[in-house]
């Protein structure tokens, strides 16, 4: 039911694993001393991560063990977090901590009465070290349940510096400049964009960045909560803007038909693979992991990014996603689970994974020097500096039937729109009909 955007590719999200990082003093990051107060206890943690992400998170769990004496056990749930955790709770085998990948799932868990409110210590750290927006997305009905440990930056456009040099273009500052630069790249022999239309979630990300910048954060919040209808003129306007890109055969590698047959890794390959077909691919910071791990690109040299540019008279958007740590109320060792969560809230814990690569933290107190390369530092700084202007991925806030299911809802309707973007108003009406049904259910 639920999908996981930043883990669709096992092991593909490491930004630059080849580049090591050190702590501020030049030595390796460690969890420090600790009093081993949890000796003999075991904390079970469930989450979607596998491959390199699971290995890197295990380093964080090992640092917690070193500090507290508690053993840890990680269980990979796959994408269906809600179903797996629900069945474990019903079977009397609830994990202590769950890493929840979507706001909608966190809200679902809270409304089912599955979650323990965060401890005063965790709440104090989050209030001091995180922008209030992260507290908002971790709360349900005014109660704080979730700590956002790992974040994604979904407002990054990745490009081939070689293609830009060949075309004589520079990273654009506005959406109009982006399309203009795209035409110049196209004139030089490459398509402007590789679009992963086979994966509906990438199209929702395109829409969300345009909508946030063009319509503004208030309307974005209202649409995300379905307090604003998808048939609203602001939605039609954003679809019209997106449609101009979709129907421009000069801009999309292979045109609409090929885009609909291109998945996310395939879109990265079209820009950074052995045979380049396009100069740019829009998606989150995790593009770098694919470019580096699969195609051997040096991040910052062979592959780089610029922020998703401002649309119209709006400001440049910062759309994010993330994984929130929650403690289950029915867990056998919820007390030790809360101690893990208090540890995850610290910059010390974030530094362990930052050093390993493939990670961004919303924690303001994490020193950027802990990241292993300049590009990761730049994306992390952009995310933290955005403060309360960050908005969580809209489709991740929606019921899964609308915002997170293959072949239905927003995913399918935006794929249909990519196929034929001639009637934004009709598409908006279809989106509203699908949303109304999903939010009612």
From TrEMBL:
<protein>
    <submittedName>
        <fullName>ABC transporter substrate-binding protein</fullName>
    </submittedName>
</protein>
<comment type="similarity">
    <text>Belongs to the bacterial solute-binding protein 1 family.</text>
</comment>
<feature type="signal peptide">
    <location>
        <begin position="1"/>
        <end position="23"/>
    </location>
</feature>
<dbReference type="InterPro" id="IPR050490">
    <property type="entry name" value="Bact_solute-bd_prot1"/>
</dbReference>
<dbReference type="Pfam" id="PF01547">
    <property type="entry name" value="SBP_bac_1"/>
</dbReference>
<keyword id="KW-0813">Transport</keyword>
<keyword id="KW-0732">Signal</keyword>
<dbReference type="InterPro" id="IPR006059">
    <property type="entry name" value="SBP"/>
</dbReference>
């Amino acid at each position: 039911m639920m999908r996981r955007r930043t883990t669709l590719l096992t092991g593909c999200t490491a930004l630059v694993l080849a580049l090591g990082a050190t702590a501020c003093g030049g030595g390796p990051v460690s969890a420090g001393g600790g009093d081993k107060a949890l000796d003999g206890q075991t904390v079970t943690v469930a989450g979607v991560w596998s491959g390199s992400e699971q290995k890197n998170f295990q380093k964080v769990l090992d640092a917690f063990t070193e500090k507290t004496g508690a053993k840890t056990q990680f269980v990979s749930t796959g994408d269906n977090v809600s179903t797996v955790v629900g069945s474990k709770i019903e079977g009397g085998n609830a994990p202590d901590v769950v890493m929840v990948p979507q706001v909608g799932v966190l809200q679902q868990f809270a409304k089912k009465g599955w979650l323990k409110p965060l401890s005063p210590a965790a709440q104090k750290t989050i209030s001091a070290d995180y922008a209030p927006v992260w507290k908002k997305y971790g709360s349900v009905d005014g109660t704080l349940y979730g700590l956002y440990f790992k974040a994604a930056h979904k407002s990054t456009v990745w490009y081939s510096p070689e293609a830009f040099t060949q075309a004589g273009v520079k990273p654009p500052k506005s959406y109009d400049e982006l399309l203009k630069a795209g035409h110049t790249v196209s004139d030089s022999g490459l398509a402007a964009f590789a679009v992963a239309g086979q994966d509906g979630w990438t199209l929702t990300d395109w829409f969300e960045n345009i909508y946030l910048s063009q319509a503004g954060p208030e309307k974005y919040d209202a649409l995300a909560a379905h307090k604003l209808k998808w048939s609203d003129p602001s939605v039609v306007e954003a679809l019209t803007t997106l449609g101009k890109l979709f129907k421009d055969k000069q801009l999309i590698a292979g045109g609409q038909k090929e885009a609909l047959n291109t998945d996310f890794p395939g879109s990265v390959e079209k820009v950074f693979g052995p045979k380049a077909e396009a100069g740019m691919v829009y998606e989150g910071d995790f593009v770098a992991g694919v470019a580096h791990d699969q195609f051997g690109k040096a991040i910052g040299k062979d592959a780089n990014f610029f922020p998703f540019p401002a649309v119209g008279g709006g400001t440049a958007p910062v759309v994010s996603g993330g994984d929130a740590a929650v403690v289950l109320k029915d867990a056998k060792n919820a007390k030790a689970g809360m101690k893990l969560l208090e540890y995850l809230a610290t910059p010390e814990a974030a530094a362990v994974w930052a050093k390993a690569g493939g990670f961004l933290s919303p924690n303001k107190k994490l020193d950027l020097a802990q990241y292993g390369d300049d590009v990761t530092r730049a994306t992390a700084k952009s995310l933290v500096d955005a403060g309360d202007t960050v908005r969580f991925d809209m489709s991740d806030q929606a019921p899964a039937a609308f915002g997170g299911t293959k072949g239905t809802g927003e995913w399918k309707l935006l794929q249909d729109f990519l196929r034929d973007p001639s009637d934004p108003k009709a598409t908006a009406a279809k989106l509203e009909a699908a949303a109304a049904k999903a939010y009612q259910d």
